[in-house]
Amino acid sequence: MTILVAGATGNVGRPLVEQLLAAGHRVRALTRNPAKADLPAGAEVVAGNLIASVAATALTTDGHAGQEYWLTGPEALTPPEKVRTISDVLGRDVRYIELTKDEIVVQWRQTGYSDEDIEFFLTMRTNPPQAGYTVLPTVEKVTGRPARTFAQWVRENATAFGT
């Protein structure tokens, strides 16, 4: 089984990739810039760029100078909902296994995170900012086309999941 790690170069993603590889798992690492990912050997690094269409429009049409855009897809999905979508689209069993608080704290400590960082991560895990669940129309306003759904993205990138 291959495990997909989204945000593979982030503060949580990078150590997760390292730990999964060390445990002998196959890892597919999703990142915006595979050339700069600098992930351990053995990780299959794939590109996942959610901002390309907006960037292309902003760079090639007038009226975008000095603008700041907050981008979202057309739906706010939890990690279990994303995994369920992947499973449904690919037509195979993909499971989401959430670690307990104690399990995740042990992993973070083993990775070298401070108690202060761990406390922050735990707060974000149990009380994430509302912005993460707010769907915005920015993509369609800028490009004239609706943002892709997560299911559409999975279909378009099915080969990245080993299908």
From TrEMBL:
Top-rank taxon: Bacteria
Lineage summary: Bacteria, Bacillati, Actinomycetota, Actinomycetes, Streptosporangiales
Domain NAD(P)-binding: 7-51
Name this polypeptide is given: NAD(P)H-binding
Gene3D superfamilies: NAD(P)-binding Rossmann-like Domain, UDP-galactose 4-epimerase, domain 1
